[in-house]
Write a structure and sequence with these properties.
five-stranded parallel β-sheet; alpha/beta; Fumarate Reductase Iron-sulfur Protein, Chain B, domain 2; FAD/NAD(P)-binding domain; binds iron/sulfur cluster; 493 residues; 15 strands; 3 domains; disordered C terminus; binds flavin-adenine dinucleotide; oxidoreductase
């Protein structure tokens, strides 16, 4: 690499694609916040990469993307080759480029953070794939030899879609079932359109269908089709069910009018903004159908500091709230949400109150929420996961006035009865047990059932669900290959 290229980062500062102007956002613009790089901007930003001999960005990326290699291809204008390389490791790169918390992953590990600003890896990833699709590029499956084997996938979220992509590339037929009429899981019915334009999911569906993936949508496994039927009709089943058990904070007053659970709020609002209905029965009966109050002119308080909380505060801004406050029980450094999303929320006028633990939701008239009683905290000793626990400071209670309170305390998985009765075991926290002992990676305690994504790791990230779906497909292919080689395998038991 020439000297000029190596030191490009000295002349070209880090830059992100242009954002929707602030005044439009606060007036209710739901378009994707970030635009897309033009060819020259993408090449300039990609050219800032130092091409470190030991790319920490790759190591920190959960799917281990070949980042410096595709940055180099972008710099050279070889977009279609870059798209092919992106897909070697990541079945859904255009989604990850948009929604990954890059500041905690690839970009957080970039050597240029030492005073120069990380390479804008996510924005370049989005540029590569969007551009390549527009130019008609599609994954090349011309050398794939069909195996005649068939796999059913339950859940069209990122884990299920990633698994389908890899199976198709291995010549294994993939049929994806989802209880909703649209694919994407939380990408479609959770993450707001200002982070991910829903047309991006439509394009991915077209691509997958062209690869031979079949979708059976509006079909709930365990109700409309039995697991036993799938086990009879398919050689293996992958479970990408997600995590929809709402964390109940047990706050006094949480049943008052004006108190909303986060996901129903986002789903309902997304339905209004995008016109897309999550037809199909809600899993736990709560996550899609609520009456959405008019937030215009209201004081909105969001409890929780994760990605869901950030989506709620920024949605409330777009819905015309008079004030939006996020209360979180730890400090800013310990917030689980992406720092970029926190910065965007601040820019949009959201007030953050850190080290505030909610105690109760109050009401002046006995029926409608009027405020949240909180206590200040300091950080104490690390818990069993290494996170420092918030310790209430006696005598520091106060009330945050509110007309609407949105509770965003997170989610955990739950194993449905139809899976448990098939012998699929889970931990106490509802996470499906996979791998370990004689089992293949992502193989459950039932030899023909594999699982990955939030139902295995608990509520996490799109990119980790993609990684698990991708790697589960490898295990499934391994199982089916070994059966073909040894027709009387013990795994048939
Ligand atoms: P899901 O996306 O939940 O998909 C599971 C699918 O399975 C669903 O479509 C469901 O309908 C289907 N299903 C379940 N049971 C059945 C059944 N019996 N029959 C048929 N279908 C069934 N992550 C990020 O990386 N960045 C973000 O910015 C981000 N923001 C988020 C914002 C919100 C509001 C939320 C809730 C999450 C966010 N996440 C984010 C997390 C991310 O969306 C999830 O980790 C990811 O979607 C998990 O993928 P999955 O495939 O495991 O499950
Ligand atoms: Fe970064 Fe996510 Fe892309 Fe990996 S998949 S390079 S972590 S944006």
């Amino acid at each position: 690499m020439s000297k000029k290229q190596v030191f490009q980062f000295l002349d070209v500062p880090r830059d992100m694609p242009r954002k929707v102007p602030l005044e439009l956002r606060t007036e209710g613009d739901w378009n994707e916040l970030y635009g897309r790089f033009g060819q020259a901007e993408a090449a300039h930003q990609a050219g800032r990469c130092l091409d470190c001999g030991n790319p920490y960005c790759e190591a920190r990326c959960p799917v281990h993307n070949y980042i410096p290699n595709w940055l180099q291809l972008v710099e050279e204008g070889r977009i279609l080759e870059a798209a092919a390389l992106c897909h070697e490791t990541n079945p859904l790169p255009e989604m990850c480029g948009r929604v990954c918390p890059q500041d905690r992953l690839c970009e957080g590990a970039c050597t240029l953070n030492a005073g120069f600003g990380a390479v804008t890896i996510g924005a370049v990833e989005k540029y590569i794939v969007d551009t390549a699709f527009e130019q008609g590029w599609r994954p090349d499956l011309s050398k794939v030899v069909p195996t005649g084997r068939q796999v059913a996938i339950v859940g069209a979220g990122p884990a299920g879609l990633a698994c389908a992509d890899r199976l198709a590339r291995a010549g294994i037929g993939a049929t994806v079932f989802d209880r909703y009429e649209q694919i994407g899981g939380l990408l479609q019915f959770g993450i707001p359109s200002f982070k991910l334009d829903k047309a991006v999911i439509d394009t991915r569906r077209e691509v997958l269908e062209e690869m031979g993936v079949r979708f059976r949508l509006g079909v709930e496994v365990g109700r409309d089709v039995a697991l036993g039927t799938l086990l009879k009709d398919y050689d293996a089943v992958f479970l990408g069910l997600g995590a929809y058990r709402y964390t109940d904070g047990g706050l006094p007053g949480q049943d008052l009018r004006g108190v909303l659970p986060a996901l129903p709020f986002l789903v309902q609002n997304g339905r209004i903004v995008t016109g897309r209905e999550p037809h199909g029965r809600p899993i736990a009966g709560w996550e899609s159908h609520i009456e959405l109050p008019d937030l215009a002119g209201k004081r909105v308080v969001v409890l929780g500091g994760g990605d869901t909380g950030m989506d709620c505060v920024r949605s409330a801004v777009r819905l015309g709230a008079a004030s939006v406050t996020c209360a979180y029980r730890r400090d800013e450094a310990n917030m689980p949400g992406s720092a970029r999303e926190v910065a965007n929320a601040r820019e949009e006028g959201v007030r953050f109150l850190f080290n505030r633990q909610p105690l109760a939701i109050q009401s002046q008239d006995g029926s409608h929420a009027s405020g949240v009683r909180v206590v200040e905290t300091r950080l104490g000793e690390p818990d069993d996961k290494g996170r420092r626990s918030p310790v209430p400071i006696p005598g520091s209670e106060s009330v945050i006035e509110a007309d609407v309170v949105i509770i965003a305390f997170g989610f955990s998985p739950r194993v449905p009865e139809w899976l448990a009765s098939a012998g699929v075991q889970a931990r106490e926290n509802g996470r499906i047990i996979v791998g370990g002992g004689e089992r293949l990676p992502y193989q459950t305690t039932h030899p023909r059932l594999f699982a990955g994504g939030d139902c295995v790791r608990g509520a996490d990230l799109v990119v980790t669900a993609v990684q698990e779906g991708r790697d589960a497909a490898r295990s499934i292919a391994h199982l089916l290959r070994s059966e073909a080689d040894h027709p009387h395998s013990a795994l048939d038991a």
